[in-house]
Structure formats: structure tokens, C-alpha cells
Design a protein that fits this description.
mainly alpha; 11 helices; about 70% helix
Length: about 200
């Protein structure tokens, strides 16, 4: 066993470069001559590449297709309030003071709304609209959006599938839980309830 460990250490790449000291300057010279003029930078750190990738992802999310699905502010406020007053106390998915602060600031002109927050709001109002529809009040806000919960839920579901598992935050899991509840209330994809609940 000791022999295997020593052998593994002896064949490590850095020890190989130490045994042939002329190899490293040769590699550096080759990179300078051939790769750098072509715009390839092998010394660029992994974290820098990851940051560039994340920046590209965020730029792609700047214009969110979810934004177009949001109702006007007054209607959204009424539907969000219904969810917070009735459903949140039962399920406890979001932290109400934090959500209310972020939700209020998202409607200001100088603040760019995070797509994750938009998905969270759409999944909340999907639940509220179903509740309004069940009450049967024809003059309610929910009656104007009676057909929308299925579209909102599918849009949020599609958005969630596009998110990288590497950069998932708490809000992504909150959206997932709310989408699950919205599907249960609107009886959407009812054959997948058991599968979704197992996740």
C-alpha cells in the first residue's frame, strides 16, 4: 500500500516538471508564440471563466419573458396580498417581511426586477387566482385572470428548468414549492403530482 502511494506521488505532473526543468520554459515560450496572438489565455483562472459565464447568464436573463406575464401593479398587489394573508400562514414558504421589502422595491422605476422574484410573484398569484375562481366572485380581480394560472405555472416551470443547479438559491426552491401548490390547485399535470412531490 505504501508503495502504491509513493508511486502515485512520484508520477504527479508537478514532480514531472521538476525532473525536466527545461520543459516549463518551452511550454511558456510556445504559449507566448502561438496561443496569445490567437487570443487564447490558458492562465485565465477557473473562477474568472465561471464569473464570465455567470455574467453572460445574467445578461441573458435581463430581458425576462416572465415580465410580460405580470398583471398591472394594482391587480398583482391584490393577488399577492390574498396569498400572503391566507396561504402563507398555512404553508410558510417565504419570509414575509423580506419578500414585501423586495417586492415593493421591484416596482420602482430605477430598480431592475430579478427574474427569480418575478417567477416567485407569478407562482404566488397563480395560487391566489385559483382561490378567487373557487370563491365564484365574478367582480373579483381573480375572475379577470381565471385562465392565466396554467400559463403562469408553465412559464415558471420552464424558467426553473433553464436555471443551472450550480447557482441555485433559496428563491428557486421557493418558486418550485409554489409551482407545485399552484399545479395542485389548478389540477395541472395531476398525473405527475406523486413524482413532483418526491423531488
Amino acid at each position: 500500500m505504501v508503495y502504491l502511494c509513493n508511486r502515485a506521488v512520484r508520477t504527479h505532473i508537478f514532480l514531472f516538471l521538476r525532473q525536466i526543468p527545461q520543459l516549463y520554459p518551452f511550454i511558456t515560450e510556445t504559449v507566448d508564440e502561438w496561443l496569445k496572438p490567437a487570443g487564447v489565455n490558458p492562465k485565465r483562472s477557473k473562477s474568472a471563466l465561471g464569473a464570465a459565464k455567470r455574467a453572460t447568464t445574467y445578461r441573458r436573463e435581463d430581458v425576462s419573458p416572465l415580465e410580460a406575464l405580470l398583471p398591472p401593479k394594482d391587480d398583482t398587489d391584490a393577488l399577492v396580498t390574498l396569498y400572503l394573508d391566507h396561504f402563507e400562514y398555512l404553508h410558510r414558504i417565504v419570509h414575509i417581511p423580506t419578500f414585501q421589502r423586495e417586492y415593493a422595491s421591484s416596482w420602482t422605476a430605477q430598480h431592475r426586477r430579478d427574474p427569480a422574484l418575478t417567477a416567485l410573484v407569478l407562482s404566488m398569484i397563480s395560487i391566489s387566482t385559483c382561490a378567487f375562481s373557487m370563491l365564484g366572485d365574478s367582480g373579483s380581480v381573480g375572475s379577470r385572470y381565471r385562465t392565466m394560472p396554467a400559463e403562469w405555472t408553465v412559464a415558471c416551470d420552464d424558467w426553473l428548468e433553464q436555471q443551472s443547479p450550480k447557482y441555485r438559491k433559496l428563491i428557486h426552491y421557493q418558486v418550485w414549492c409554489l409551482i407545485y401548490l399552484a399545479k395542485r390547485m389548478s389540477i395541472l399535470h395531476k398525473k405527475r403530482f406523486w413524482t413532483d412531490a418526491a423531488l
